[in-house]
Design goal:
Structural class: alpha+beta
Helix content: 10-25%
Radius of gyration: 16 Å
Number of helices: 2
Strand order of the largest sheet: 1-2-3
Number of strands: 3
Strand content: 5-15%
Order of helices and strands: HHEEE
Distance between the termini: 26 Å
């Protein structure tokens, strides 16, 4: 999922390359991957599908902790992968962001 978000945050599309066996079936590993990505997209798809890259003047990606950004309409979306309880500095132009909220585990304050 991190790779998927990384690609989308840079304006790309991820080719999953799921192939069928000779019997025309999807392997268990590939099925699990598709199911996990589908479940994640059920929750987070609004920040992924039809999204665009966020202007680097507003916010930048980071590798430690891992943060990626997308934009849909007037909303900026931050995807953060950090240990529970971590303090994640926001490398964003705060004057360009009206409010922030957490949509999953953890708390966000602005």
């Amino acid at each position: 999922i991190r790779h998927f978000v990384d690609v989308v945050s840079r304006g790309g599309n991820l080719l999953l390359n799921i192939g069928l066996t000779a019997a025309g079936e999807v392997t268990d590993l590939q099925r699990r991957t598709l199911e996990e990505l589908g479940a994640w997209n059920d929750v987070n798809g609004g920040a992924i599908f039809a999204s665009e890259t966020l202007d680097l003047v507003i916010a930048r990606a980071a590798d430690e902790p891992w943060v990626r950004w997308t934009r849909t309409g007037g909303l900026a979306h931050a995807f953060i992968d950090a240990a529970a309880g971590s303090v994640v500095p926001c490398a964003a132009q705060t004057s360009a962001i009206a409010r922030a909220r957490a949509t999953r585990a953890g708390e966000a304050a602005w």
